[in-house]
Amino acid sequence: MTGDVLPSIAVGHLGPPKLSKLLIEAYLLREALGTSDLETLERAAPRDVQRRVEEHLRANPRTVSLIVTIGIPMLRASSDGKLQLTRGPRINIPPAPPDGAAVPLSRDAVEKCARTGWVDLRLENFEVWHERLRRIARSRPDIVSHGSAAFDLTRYPSSDFVPGDVVGWLLTNEVDDQGIPGHRLF
Fold this sequence. Notes:
Blueprint: H1 17-33, H2 38-43, H3 46-59, H4 61-69, E1 74-77, E2 83-86, H5 107-116, E3 119-120, H6 123-138, H7 143-146, H8 163-173
Parallel strand pairs: 1-3
Antiparallel strand pairs: 1-2
């Protein structure tokens, strides 16, 4: 996305920050690889996807600004393994205390934030997305054999990678941090 047009990825109050985080990451995968073909996205190597997402973000600084301005930081690991956070004027996760005091972040707290509310641009998150894409692609319904009975909440009904549909599938089918299986709203 270039020029004066900004994407409408996850602006506004959608609910938990994890929803915005996942929508943004899914959008970045599709845009950076330049396709919505699920099989093509699934075949892409995580390291290549990471590189292409970073190239896309460098070429689209207004998209970066949009993401961080809505309170969703972007987490990266530098070549020496140190963590880098790109942020805007506010951060949704972790919430700021009412007194405005600094929020200390342990390594565990950073990992929790990366899972629940920060756009995670580290290789390990692209590996998670690779596995997600594999599961989504394998969940496609066999309508030839089973007809409409093949469609249920565990099936992704399309060969197109549509960020909102993919995130809906993830929120329905992934186990959350508390070990609660899918088929939930959040």
